[in-house]
Amino acid sequence: MPGFEHWGEAEKKELADVISSGVLMRYGFEGQRGGHWKARQFEKEISEYTGSPHVHLTSSGTAALETALSALGVGYGDEVILPVFTFVAGFEAICRVGAIPVFADIDETLTLSPPAVEAAITGRTKVIMPVHMCGGMAQMQELLHLSEKYDIPLLEDACQSVGGSYRGRKLGTLGAVGTYSFDFVKTVTAGEGGAILCSSEAIYKKCDAYSDHGHDHLGADRGSDHHPWPGTNFRISELHAAVGLAQFRRLEEFLELQQKNYLSIEEALMKVPGISFRKLPDPAGNCFSFLSWMLPSEKDAVRVISKLRSMNKAAGHFYWYENSWHYLRNWNHLKEGQFLSALPPATTDSILENARRSFPVSDQIMGRCISTAIRLSWNPEEIDQVIADLTRALE
Ligand SMILES: *Cc1c(COP(=O)(O)O)cnc(C)c1O
After folding, report:
1. What's the CA-to-centroid distance between 57 and ligand 1, angstroms?
2. Mutation choice for ligand 1 from 110, 177, 183, CB with most ligand atoms inside 8 A
3. What is the residue with the minimal CA distance to atom 14 of ligand 1?
4. Cα distance between residue 146 and residue 84, in whole Å
């Protein structure tokens, strides 16, 4: 899965350029920086790789989501539809702009169920947020159709699926806006960092400004430009951008390794009767960071996970159903509303009402699903060991 497994000369070289000039900020200081613009270069290379006309880096994927929501004009009273299986960041970003997260069921793709999205649309829905979980992809054709039918933009959270694609187009470039994360456990890492991808220049300009106190970056050294909007500080530093740039150049190498390791484990699990796999809307666009597989029942999944734990081999096998970060069912902190006090009471009430709904259709899927994180650094003996452990736990 993660770039953190590969730290090498390329990353050190890009960092050394920044350290030797001492210009750690992405804007200005032109005279001192010795021609090094790591953030700018990183944005250019993401744009070339993905075909997205506009790319803007931020300090994290979470910051990218909040920035994108703001640029899409999402605010108080608006609703944003998101899946029950996601990372809490999407939920947090929606609350941060004062909007209401409206959860919708997933299906066996582990991403948004299009009919559930359609049922959740109201007159207040401002954005639909598909989340490309676990290296796979959402059902983009159906979601793009809904987006057009109801005139509601898609914000693709592609934080976990950098390098993945749908019918030949990179994830994050199909909706109005897409986001990437380069945190320490993502496919490529910058230490911390995120990116926003969009085709609209107007949205790009808002993202660029929002993430740097509203500066429009049209003048020299941020001194003579305008700052027409209030924003915040979600800037990426040159240090982070330098690492991210070096790692991003290795993305294809990482994806190839992941694919090889993923296929070995998949092949072994395919031989076990009763196991099925997460459905991929476009198998050719998989980025192989997790192998997600399903047992016939929740009872079976609990038994397998408990067995792995008793063997001390559960690390790397995620049973999201019990997890309090990615599956709504266990987000007890937000169901109790403890960190929502800064929002108006009516918004808080709506958020809590949504968060406390139950989702038996999704429970039925997540309760049976285990995701195995695919490491880049496994050698053939280690892969054999993972397969042997799984085989034992499945006996
Ligand atoms: C990691 C992640 C984020 C947030 O990214 P950070 O860079 O850690 O802030 C958002 N959404 C999903 C689906 C993620 O996996």
Report:
1. 14
2. 183
3. 159
4. 19
Structure tokens at 265: 């484990």
Instruction: Compute φ and ψ for 34, nearest 5 degrees.
Output: 60, 30
- Say if ligand 1 is within 6 A of residue 139 CB: no
Reduced to 3 states (helix: H, G, I; strand: E, B; else coil), residue 280 is: coil
Which of these, 211, 235, 206, 259, lies nearest to 39 by C-alpha position? 235
Q: How far apart are CA 183 and CA 325, in angstroms?
A: 16
CA-CA distance, 97 to 74, in Å (whole number)?
7
**Alpha carbon of 165 to ligand 1 centroid (Å):** 18
Q: Note down pLDDT in tens along the chain; length 395 residues.
A: 566 788 889 999 999 999 999 999 999 998 999 999 999 999 999 999 999 999 999 999 999 999 999 999 999 999 999 999 999 999 999 999 999 999 999 999 999 999 999 999 999 999 999 999 999 999 999 999 999 999 999 999 999 999 999 999 999 999 999 999 999 999 999 999 999 999 999 999 999 999 999 888 887 767 677 887 889 999 999 999 999 999 999 999 999 999 999 999 999 999 999 999 999 999 999 999 999 999 999 999 999 999 999 999 999 999 999 988 999 999 887 788 776 567 888 888 899 999 999 999 999 999 999 999 999 999 999 999 999 999 999 99
Q: Is the CB of 87 under 6 A from ligand 1?
A: yes
- The shares of helix, strand and coil residues in the chain, as percent rounded to the nearest 5, are 45, 15, 40
CA-nearest residue for atom 15, ligand 1, is 160
Q: Which of 38, 170, 186, 205 is catalytic?
A: 186
Identify the H or E element spanning 50.
Answer: helix 38-50
The enclosing H or E element of 10 equals helix 9-21
44 is catalytic: no
Cα of 68 vs centre of ligand 1, distance in Å, is 14
Q: What is the dihedral of CA 135, 156, 367, 103, to 10 degrees?
A: 170
Which ligand 1 atom minimizes the distance to the CA of 193?
7
- Pairing mode, strands 169-170 and 165-166: antiparallel
